[in-house]
């Protein structure tokens, strides 16, 4: 991989749009679906995992420019999904409710893995 300014710009721009999307999802879900579980974080993690599964499957058949992969995966999806927020929210949930903390862990981990696999399999199904 070439470390040229276009690659840094691609990651930065993708990160900007991913972070803005995450902020927007947090506003919409937090305002419209108040819940004890952090649904906004769960949503971006599962949807982002589904999208990365789609993209990785798609990139098996089509090879885009390196900057496009960096923009979409490293930048956009890297900023959209969040492990650190998941970690601290789970920590607080475990302190207040062991049950909700465990549910949050299972939904994020299993949900994200299943979503990534499903996205990948969807592309393979349609492109074979």
Describe this structure in words.
This protein is mainly α. The chain has one domain. The longest helix is centred in the C-terminal third of the chain and has 30 residues. Helix 2 packs antiparallel against helix 3, helix 2 runs parallel beside helix 5 and helix 4 runs antiparallel to helix 5.
SSE run: HHHHH
Tally of alpha and pi helices:
5
Shape: globular
Distance between the termini: 29 Å
Mean pLDDT: 94
Poorly predicted residue ranges: none
Biggest sheet, open or closed, and with what strands and sense?
none
Count of strand segments: 0
- Provide the number of structural domains: 1
- Our estimate of the beta-strand percent is under 5%
Helix vs. strand class: mainly alpha
Helix content: over 70%
Radius of gyration: 16 Å
Quick overview of this protein structure:
With 128 residues, the protein is an all-alpha fold.
Set out the fold topology.
Elements: H1 5-32, H2 39-61, H3 66-80, H4 83-96, H5 98-127
Q: Which descriptors would you attach to this protein?
A:
86% helix; 5 helices; mainly alpha
């Amino acid at each position: 991989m070439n470390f040229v300014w276009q690659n840094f710009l691609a990651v930065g721009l993708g990160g900007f749009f991913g972070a803005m999307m995450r902020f927007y999802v947090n506003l919409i879900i937090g305002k419209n679906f108040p819940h004890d579980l952090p649904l906004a974080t769960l949503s971006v993690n599962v949807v982002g995992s589904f999208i990365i599964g789609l993209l990785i499957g798609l990139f098996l058949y089509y090879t885009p420019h390196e900057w496009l992969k960096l923009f979409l995966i490293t930048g956009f999806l890297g900023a959209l999904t969040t492990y650190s927020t998941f970690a601290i929210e789970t920590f607080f949930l475990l302190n207040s409710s062991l049950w909700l903390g465990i549910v949050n862990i299972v939904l994020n981990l299993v949900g994200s893995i299943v979503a990534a696999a499903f996205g990948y399999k969807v592309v393979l199904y349609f492109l074979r």
